[in-house]
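Hypothesis: this fold can be encoded by more than one sequence.
Test: take the structure tokens below, design a sequence, compare later.
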């Protein structure tokens, strides 16, 4: 299962590679995915075009170059899910 976090201001980010409570990342979490709104993308899985929402695999956690895009139907079929963000934000003193 691949999870993408939706923040309270409706932006998206990949699941962090360092999990809360110092849990090790899973193999799937190591591959960064996000969701973008765009009408100029096509699905690399099924070929449909003009996506309004694309599930995008990024090159790495430090490189936001898209390397794979999927429509909502293909992402759902592949088990990619969108969850409310539960990241722990540490405040600096």
């Amino acid at each position: 299962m691949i999870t993408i976090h939706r923040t309270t201001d409706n932006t998206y980010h990949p699941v962090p590679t360092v999990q809360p409570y110092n849990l090790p990342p899973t193999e799937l979490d190591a591959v960064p995915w996000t969701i973008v709104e765009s009408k100029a993308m096509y699905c690399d899985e099924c070929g449909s075009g003009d996506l309004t929402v694309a599930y995008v695999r990024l090159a790495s956690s430090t490189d936001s170059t898209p390397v794979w895009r999927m429509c909502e139907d293909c992402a759902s079929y592949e088990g990619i899910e969108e969850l409310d963000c539960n990241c722990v934000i540490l405040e600096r003193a």
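The chain has one domain: 2-84. Residues 2-84 form one domain.
Hypothesis status: open.
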